[in-house]
Fold this protein.
Amino acid sequence: MSEFEYDLVVVGSGPAGQKGAIAAAKLGKRVAVIDRREMTGGVCVHTGTIPSKTLREAILYLSGFRQRTFYGKDYVVSDRISARDLAHRVQRVVEREVEVVHNQLRRNGVTSLAGTARFVEPHSLEVTPEASHAFRVSAEHILIACGTRSACTPAIPLDGRYIFDADQLPDVQELPRDLIVVGAGVIGLEYASMLTALDIKVTIIDQRPTLLDFVDREMIEALSYHMRRRGATFRLGETVTAVERDEQGRVVAHLDSGKRVHGGALLYTVGRQANSDLLDLGAAGLAADPRGRIPVDEYFRTPVPHIYAAGDVIGFPSLASSSSEQGRLASNHMFGVNHRRISADLLPYGIYTVPEMSMIGRTEQQLTTAKVPYEVGVAKYEELAKGQILGDETGLLKMLFDPERLTLYGVHAIGDGAAELIHIAQAVLAFGGTIEYFRDTVFNYPTLAEAYKVAALAGLNRL
């Protein structure tokens, strides 16, 4: 058998790579992680999850958005909110998170190799540091967790100032008073809704006729309603054919239908492109789809048995939370530990729009399509003392359950703290519980968690 330098080499230090590397290190394996020095922590830390959620918190605070229920819709904490104000807070959090990732890898004995990687053969990778000569590493197993970058198209020429993608947004020097957002996926809707909280007029364009098909329709309708009230315009079923700047410096988006949409700037968020095209996959006997996604089995193993892939590079759901678990389970499987699989029904989804949405389990649409009878219990934040205290009178939590056995099918929430609330439902679903659990449980008062008891009682009253 060949002598390998490492038991596992991980390409990428984002949530999947980091957790996969640490899981293997805890099993006593020799592990190395390859990533560019400036990208430690991956897209999650530098241009994705952490910056966007930090930006969201900064916007909600500086705009006074959460206090407007009490002090009126014109209330603001800061009269002039600059891109620099927002970027400062983002930079501090990113620096701290990079430090956390470095420390976690070091404490667990994982070797960090700075540079870009590409396959030279199925068990070997060439690492090219920024300022020194390339070298090779070999490993018994390899985990590809190289993440993604914003997809681009020649029809939309990015300049990073007036026409930019989601990765470039945190570095934009000046926020426009009106913005065009091309792409109404999770990223597009998150940024669009955040910016409407700053009273920026946003026009959202997407070629699909509906928003986020995997989300409960009632939640999407509520989000659309709140965004429209804040000045958002939706152009669905429309395709952008070209983008240019006019003589006044304004951005003009030309649509296939003949319409022209004007704005101070344009944000392009039409999907992500996996970085696997930089790895020379052919040298390892692998191939990716046009978006760069690598096919894997239920254990995150690629068609080449000793090579695994996890995180955004394997596609949906492309969440930091699910990617972390994928990386950990991939490492466990390759070294013969705990062959558990992820249950799709038990994955929570958090969408950090304004207001935020979160869900777990099945939607009304999925249950209806599968011809599964269900009943509904709803709690509105305005019925909760905590909702009144927070000033969120528009949020709601909806639970779906079996009308005969009372087992829980799914929970969907929109409003303040929705992404935190959903974990209570996650625990009950994981243990096959019924909504009687919520009826019989005493929740702290006043809390948003009380919504579960209110919703359970409302559902039981419908039987």
Notes: The chain has a mean pLDDT of 91. The two ends are 65 Å apart (CA to CA). The longest strand covers residues 135-144.
